[in-house]
Amino acid sequence: MWEIADRLGVEVPKMSTGSTEPREIFVLVNRYLGLGIDEKQTKPELAKSIVESVGLPWNADFESRGGTVTKAGLVAVLGAVVRHCG
Questions:
Q1: Is 82 helix (H, G, I), strand (E, B) or coil?
Q2: Residue 63, strand partner residues
Q3: Alpha carbon 63 to chain centroid, angstroms
Q4: What tens digit of pLDDT does each residue of 6-32 get?
Q5: Cβ contacts of 82 within 8 Å, gap of 6 or more
Q6: Integer Cα distance of 26 and 21 in angstroms
Q7: pTM of the full predicted structure?
Q8: DSSP state letter for 61
Q9: Tens digit of pLDDT for each residue in 20-69?
């Protein structure tokens, strides 16, 4: 996750207790890239929308049953940021 924040040039969002990734990282990506994604979506939905917005595929392994995004999903979001920013 810190790689995503670093790429955007923003501070890494604070982690909440028991969270694997803060929702704020996906909100920051959405806003920074100007994607206009509805921020009321779940974390996996936000991540999927970010990844698909640059034409990359979303894989079911990118999200867990607990409503979180896996490490592979975070890597996919980073790939979307890199692809968008060049």
A1: helix
A2: 69
A3: 11
A4: 888 888 787 665 556 788 889 999 999
A5: 7
A6: 9
A7: 0.86
A8: G
A9: 678 888 999 999 999 999 999 999 999 999 999 999 999 999 998 888 89
Report the C-alpha gap between 59 and 27 in whole angstroms: 20
Residue-level pLDDT at 69: 92
Q: Report how far apart, in Å, the C-alpha atoms of 76 and of each of 18, 34, 36, 51, 72 are.
A: 22, 18, 19, 6, 6
Assign 3-state DSSP to the chain and report helix, strand, coil percentages, each to 5: 55, 0, 45
Report d(CA 78, CA 40) in Å as an integer: 21
> What is the chain's Cα-based Rg?
12
Q: Please tell me the distance from the alpha carbon of residue 22 to that of residue 69, in angstroms, as a whole number.
A: 10
Structure tokens at 68: 């979180």
Identify the residue whose tokens are 């999200």.
Answer: 63
